[in-house]
Amino acid sequence: MTPEFIIEFAKEAIMMTLMISMPMLMLGLIVGLIVSVFQAVTSIQEMTLSFVPKIIAVFAGLLFFAPWMLETFTEYTRRIIENIPLYIK
User: How far apart are CA 27 and CA 70, in angstroms?
Assistant: First the structure.
């Protein structure tokens, strides 16, 4: 294994992690911004108001995106396992 191979392998793993986590992160960000604007407009400073909607949005997004996330991760894992003989040369 060459250093270039290891760097490319790590880069691909990091990109896969970002791609799979991005929908949940974006939902949390969008709901957090909406709740923050709502709190600023109404002067409500309740701490639970910022966490509960984000948790609900992330869980709803997880239910919606779970099949895609599982399929993407399974394909990535399958490809890695199939290429193990190429990796050990």
Answer: 18
